[in-house]
Amino acid sequence: MPLFSDDPSSCVSPSPPSRFKKMDWKVRGDTNRSLPVISFFLGAALTAAFVFLGATMDVNWRISEMAVWGNGGGRDEVNAELSQLLKNASMEDGTVIVTSINQAYAAPGSLLDLFLESFQIGEGTAALLDHLLIVAVDPGALATCRSVHRHCYLLRPADGGAAAAADDLGAEKFFMTPEYLDMMWARNRFQQTILELGFNFLFTDIDIMWFRNPMRHIGITSDIAIASDFFNGDPDSLHNLPNGGFLYVRSRNTTVEFYRRWREARRRFPAGTNEQYVLARTQATLTGQVGVRMQFLDTANCGGFCQLSGDLRRVSTMHANCCTGLANKVHDLRSVLRDWRNYTAAPREVRRRGGFGWTKPGRCIH
């Protein structure tokens, strides 16, 4: 599938076919003087336009772009490596489950261990690990990934300066800090790349526990399916607030264009705005302009700490949202896993009667 480019120069049309060279063009006046002058002013105008465009771009946005596309090689080499990994991990319909980690999340006993454990103890979820691509943002996280999982990919910074700035990518990123925002927008661009390469993806934050296959809740007519911290009861309502930590997107020209406009909309918001807020403010406009169907997932099935799914007979995933701090997330998710184990250990007839719930209060869960 042909790649899309953010480089304005990529929009320049190719040279006209040679057959046009046979056409006779008549120019009135002194062509030796007028054509060079016209060319000079056209060139100056184009140069000024590109300088202005570059100057008005958000600096953090440009740095994030560099980080995503740099892999110590050209874009084609990066895409070839990524495309092969996606192919290896993809389902029959070309869907890949994707998550991302840094060294803090990959440390022993941290979120990666809990995340993988949830697949192992879930109902019919262990086989889904064959279709999981873990994206590491630092070499330490990559090493850990390769020791526990088959499909791992390293997102490298573009150059020495960016690499030096990226040395701290392995540390915990606190919500809405500049480093956190750069990481979120870089993730957004990476997701667009997966679509451009022809693969569907289901992105899941590393702090989401998988207990049943959530894809059964995604409508076959949905181009995009996304979680919501607080579900209003209508899966088609664009008044639901999106949570990009759990997001399914089909690879289509329309969804690639949706992503391109989503990222472009960032420039209309103040510096320090995250991708989720931009989506919430533009999703109604973008879906109408591009023509995609956006589905919001019921928190009874794909829930989180913000709006707990109280019925363990229905829950597919549990997200440690509305919770800040790595230690707090790990603490409460360990309780969630313990509660799930207790539920699945009970006799079937007891589980059918219900009455099982999550341990409360925790550090975040209430």
Sum up the structure in keywords:
366 residues; alpha/beta; 12 helices; 10 strands; 12% strand
SSE blueprint and pairings:
Blueprint: H1 31-56, H2 59-69, H3 75-89, E1 95-101, H4 103-106, H5 111-121, E2 132-136, H6 139-148, E3 152-154, H7 160-165, H8 178-196, E4 200-204, E5 208-210, E6 224-228, E7 242-249, H9 253-265, H10 275-290, E8 294-296, E9 302-304, E10 317-319, H11 326-345, H12 348-353
Parallel strand pairs: 1-2, 1-4, 2-3, 6-8, 9-10
Antiparallel strand pairs: 4-7, 5-10, 6-7
Could you explain how this protein is built, in words?
The protein is built from 12 helices and 10 strands. The longest helix has 26 residues, at 31-56. It has helices at residues 31-56, 59-69, 75-89, 103-106, 111-121, 139-148, 160-165, 178-196, 253-265, 275-290, 326-345, 348-353; strands at 95-101, 132-136, 152-154, 200-204, 208-210, 224-228, 242-249, 294-296, 302-304, 317-319. The strands form 2 sheets. Strands 3-2-1-4-7-6-8 form a 7-stranded mixed β-sheet. Strands 5-10-9 form a 3-stranded mixed β-sheet. The chain has 366 residues and is α/β, with parallel strands linked by helices. Strand 2 (132-136), helix 6 and strand 3 form a beta-alpha-beta unit.
